[in-house]
Design brief:
mainly alpha; elongated
Length: 83
Protein backbone atom coordinates (compact mmCIF):
# COMPACT_ATOMS: atom_id res chain seq x y z
CA UNK A 1 0.00 0.00 0.00
CA UNK A 2 1.50 3.35 -0.99
CA UNK A 3 1.48 6.52 1.11
CA UNK A 4 -1.49 8.05 -0.74
CA UNK A 5 -3.60 4.95 -0.17
CA UNK A 6 -2.55 4.90 3.49
CA UNK A 7 -3.57 8.55 3.88
CA UNK A 8 -6.90 7.89 2.16
CA UNK A 9 -7.53 4.93 4.43
CA UNK A 10 -6.74 7.01 7.52
CA UNK A 11 -9.13 9.75 6.38
CA UNK A 12 -11.91 7.24 5.73
CA UNK A 13 -11.31 5.59 9.09
CA UNK A 14 -11.47 8.97 10.83
CA UNK A 15 -14.92 9.54 9.31
CA UNK A 16 -16.23 6.00 9.78
CA UNK A 17 -15.02 5.66 13.37
CA UNK A 18 -17.51 8.37 14.34
CA UNK A 19 -20.48 6.40 13.00
CA UNK A 20 -22.79 4.48 15.35
CA UNK A 21 -21.78 0.83 15.84
CA UNK A 22 -24.75 -0.48 13.84
CA UNK A 23 -23.72 1.54 10.77
CA UNK A 24 -20.08 0.44 11.07
CA UNK A 25 -21.24 -3.18 11.32
CA UNK A 26 -23.39 -2.76 8.21
CA UNK A 27 -20.42 -1.31 6.31
CA UNK A 28 -18.10 -4.10 7.49
CA UNK A 29 -20.64 -6.72 6.45
CA UNK A 30 -21.01 -5.13 3.04
CA UNK A 31 -17.22 -5.04 2.55
CA UNK A 32 -16.82 -8.70 3.56
CA UNK A 33 -19.64 -9.81 1.26
CA UNK A 34 -18.02 -7.95 -1.63
CA UNK A 35 -14.90 -10.09 -1.12
CA UNK A 36 -16.91 -13.29 -1.48
CA UNK A 37 -18.36 -12.11 -4.77
CA UNK A 38 -14.96 -11.27 -6.26
CA UNK A 39 -13.37 -14.67 -5.85
CA UNK A 40 -12.06 -15.84 -9.19
CA UNK A 41 -12.55 -19.40 -10.38
CA UNK A 42 -9.51 -21.62 -10.73
CA UNK A 43 -7.91 -21.44 -14.17
CA UNK A 44 -8.54 -24.35 -16.52
CA UNK A 45 -5.89 -27.08 -16.22
CA UNK A 46 -4.20 -26.11 -19.50
CA UNK A 47 -3.68 -22.51 -18.26
CA UNK A 48 -2.04 -23.43 -14.95
CA UNK A 49 1.64 -22.59 -14.48
CA UNK A 50 4.00 -25.45 -15.26
CA UNK A 51 5.23 -25.69 -11.66
CA UNK A 52 1.65 -26.08 -10.41
CA UNK A 53 0.99 -28.80 -12.97
CA UNK A 54 4.05 -30.69 -11.72
CA UNK A 55 2.92 -30.38 -8.09
CA UNK A 56 -0.57 -31.60 -8.90
CA UNK A 57 0.97 -34.55 -10.70
CA UNK A 58 3.13 -35.33 -7.68
CA UNK A 59 0.12 -35.19 -5.34
CA UNK A 60 -1.68 -37.72 -7.54
CA UNK A 61 1.21 -40.18 -7.41
CA UNK A 62 0.75 -43.38 -5.37
CA UNK A 63 3.79 -42.53 -3.21
CA UNK A 64 3.74 -38.83 -2.26
CA UNK A 65 7.13 -37.15 -1.80
CA UNK A 66 8.75 -37.01 1.61
CA UNK A 67 10.24 -33.85 3.11
CA UNK A 68 13.62 -34.35 1.42
CA UNK A 69 11.97 -34.75 -1.98
CA UNK A 70 9.93 -31.60 -1.45
CA UNK A 71 13.05 -29.64 -0.46
CA UNK A 72 14.83 -30.89 -3.59
CA UNK A 73 11.88 -29.93 -5.82
CA UNK A 74 11.69 -26.47 -4.27
CA UNK A 75 15.45 -25.99 -4.74
CA UNK A 76 15.20 -27.09 -8.39
CA UNK A 77 12.32 -24.69 -9.02
CA UNK A 78 14.22 -21.82 -7.39
CA UNK A 79 17.22 -22.66 -9.57
CA UNK A 80 15.06 -22.50 -12.69
CA UNK A 81 13.37 -19.29 -11.61
CA UNK A 82 16.35 -17.33 -10.25
CA UNK A 83 19.25 -18.99 -12.05
Amino acid sequence: MNIDATNDLAAVWQDVSQWPPSERMALATRILRSLEQRSEPAPPPDERPEALKRLIGIWKSPHPPDDDDVERLVAEERGRKYG
